[in-house]
TrEMBL record:
Gene3D superfamilies: Zn peptidases (3.40.630.10)
Lineage: Bacteria, Pseudomonadati, Pseudomonadota, Gammaproteobacteria, Lysobacterales
Domain Peptidase M14 stretches: 31-308
InterPro entries associated with the record: AstE_AspA_cat, Peptidase_M14
Molecular function terms, GO-annotated: hydrolase activity, acting on ester bonds; metallocarboxypeptidase activity; zinc ion binding
Reported cofactor(s): Zn(2+)
Organism listed in the record: Stenotrophomonas rhizophila
Full protein name: Peptidase M14 domain-containing protein
GO biological process: proteolysis
Keyword line: Hydrolase, Metal-binding, Zinc
Protein family per UniProt: Belongs to the peptidase M14 family.
Annotated coiled-coil segments of the chain: none
Keyword check for Zinc: yes
């Protein structure tokens, strides 16, 4: 049992219908602009990279172009590295970390790897600092056939021609205090379930694929990040957000079964980063730097690994 107050939309024990979802959507107001924060940064990359629009989100009255950034001299003989950010729009360092990587480190991999970077998969959520899309759907549970989330379907279509050639996919996320105060209570209310409070880990951690675990890869990424910010410890149950810790700062999920973004590429090496921006021990810039360190370590590991 929990004494947590119920989310202020819907009826306890009853999943939301169209009316409740419309009520929720009406509460979501823009707090920042994708056109101001993200699009100019992407546009500034055109001199060094190929920038292409791979789709458009249509949430009337708003429309959002979706952009991908590729290596200029794409070489099919080289391994491809996929970086995705902003699957959850509220997770700021996922977006800013991907952009910072492109601005400061991506050129180092010219001639060594093909890079495909999608900095902001969910611009509607980015503007509203929201986990879900406008239809109250979590894009990061929607990477599946006939996806109900336009964001997920568009990214899947972009990546589909490259499946089998992608060596590494890193998906950039955050775990925030609002996961407990807003997003998990909203999820429980939407699905007509009771909200059970949990603990937010203080620090950086990774999510590996339980169906394709790559522990040495995860360890290498965490080792690089640890030079930038602290790694989240396990709680008293030996868990992070309810999952057993299989190595310091590493948990596992069945990525494809859960419809998570890191399953979309079919890559051998996959990981989902989780930065904690609300920690008193980390600044926003440290969070961005941690994402960049994770990207570079992931690419470096995949480049050094034997190909078979």
């Amino acid at each position: 049992m929990t004494n947590a107050p119920f989310y202020p939309i819907g009826t306890p024990g009853q999943p939301w219908g169209a009316a409740e979802k419309a009520q929720w959507r009406a509460r979501q107001v823009p707090q920042r602009r994708h056109a101001d924060d993200v699009l100019p940064a992407v546009d500034a990359l055109r001199d060094a990279f190929d920038v292409s629009q791979y789709g458009t989100l249509d949430y009337a009255p708003d429309q959002y172009p979706l952009f991908a950034v590729r290596s200029r001299d794409w070489n099919p003989a080289l391994p491809t590295m996929l970086v995705t950010g902003g699957i959850h729009g509220y997770e700021t360092s996922g977006v800013q970390g991907a952009l910072q990587f492109l601005q400061t480190r991506a050129a180092e991999y010219a001639g060594r790897a093909n890079l495909l970077v999608v900095p902001c998969v969910s611009p509607w959520g980015y503007e509203r600092i929201q986990r879900w899309n406008a239809d109250a759907i979590d894009p990061n549970r929607s990477f599946m056939a006939n996806s109900p989330a336009a964001e997920s379907a568009a990214l899947m279509a972009l990546v589909a021609p490259l499946r089998g050639s992608i060596a590494m996919h890193i998906d950039l996320h955050e775990t925030t205090d609002t996961d407990e105060t807003e997003f998990r209570p909203a999820l429980a209310a939407r699905d007509g379930k009771p909200f059970e409070p949990g603990l937010i880990p203080d620090g950086f951690y990774l999510v590996d694929d339980s169906e394709n675990p790559q522990p040495a890869f995860q360890t290498a990424v965490n080792a690089a990040v640890e030079r930038v910010t602290h790694i989240a410890p396990a709680d008293e149950k030996g868990e992070i957000i309810g999952s057993p810790v299989v190595a310091p700062g590493v948990i596992e999920y069945p990525l494809e079964k859960l419809g998570l973004c890191a399953s979309v590429s079919g890559a051998r090496y996959t990981t989902t980063t989780e930065v904690y921006p609300d920690s008193p021990r980390a600044t926003p810039q440290q969070c961005n730097d941690a994402q960049v360190a994770a990207i570079c370590a992931a690419i470096d590991y995949a480049l050094a690994a034997p190909r078979n």
